[in-house]
Amino acid sequence: MMPTLGLALMGTGRMAHVYGPKINAHPGLRLEVVYNPRIASAQKAADLYCGRAMDDLNVVLSDPKVDAVVIATPTDTHVDYIEMAARAGKPIYCEKPLDQSLDRVERAMAALDAHPVPFMLGFNRRFDPDNAALREAVRRGEIGRINMLMSWSREPSPPPIEYVRTSGGYFVDATIHDIDLLCWIAGERPVEVTATGSCMFDSEIGAEGDFDMTMTTLKMPSGALVHINNSRSCAYGFDQRLEAFGNAGMVQTLNHRDDNLVRWDARRTAAREPLKHFFLERYDQSFYNALDEFHGAIIAGRPPSATAQDGKAALTIALACVQSAKAGVTIKPTYS
Q1: What is the pTM of this model?
Q2: What is the pLDDT of residues 111-125, one digit of tens each?
Q3: How far are the Cα atoms of 37, 88, 94, 176, 295 from residue 301, in angstroms, in the given order?
Q4: Is it true that domain 5-117 has CATH number 3.30.360.10?
Q5: Is 257 helix (H, G, I), strand (E, B) or coil?
């Protein structure tokens, strides 16, 4: 029988409602309590998943039934909650990003150093079956030496402007996913970052000093080049593709649809179903797989595979993208 971990779900927003059903679906996880400082919000979510709600985090963290925590709260609360959970000795799964500030990320890492508990950052795209399969093909040497890695991440429509204002900007909010994924596939981090952006879809985003389209090039120590193409608007759906090109071949991931039929008739040729509409549909399985990795790491007594150091590196690169795009120069990031 699979060992079971009791979890506290911290937060009641969109991402908490992604993780709640996934926790309940996993045979090795048991949702013990939902936490929110507003008890009514906590109870409303708890009624969907476990029935038990709390508004006192100290009580949650002292509960012997709570073996670990899932932090799915607003980004600016992550560091404080990491510190509290680490002091309480609870393993931590934290939704990305750790924070939008490197200083605060280092504060969280200091807490994890002072109170060593298993910690996993929610870079869920690593755990998408297609992305993981592409990485394995690369690692097996199917394409020989990596020469280029490319990703296309285009969203169907811009988010509300209120979201943009607190997101940290497009590079920190969205490109950071691609940065982590492609560095993970490549097995190295860039020595040069060149990025540019424009605002072509939503003038309100531009008025906030942000972009709704970006292109990023990373140069790796090996000489490999990485290209990231991002857009906050895409008329044909949620466009998510990867390509790894090497001296001996190429591997790609393709977009997901409701089915893979290609239809031909008197009105159309090569017609296909539209793309999945948003990340919650396209990457649904990845969230479950990420929680499975968290569970497996704790049970096996090994570190989870997406670390706080990975989060710091991805943020360092994303902030270098911001600097490059604003200054129009190539940035050489430094890692510590």
Answers
A1: 0.93
A2: 999 999 999 999 999
A3: 32, 18, 18, 28, 10
A4: no
A5: strand
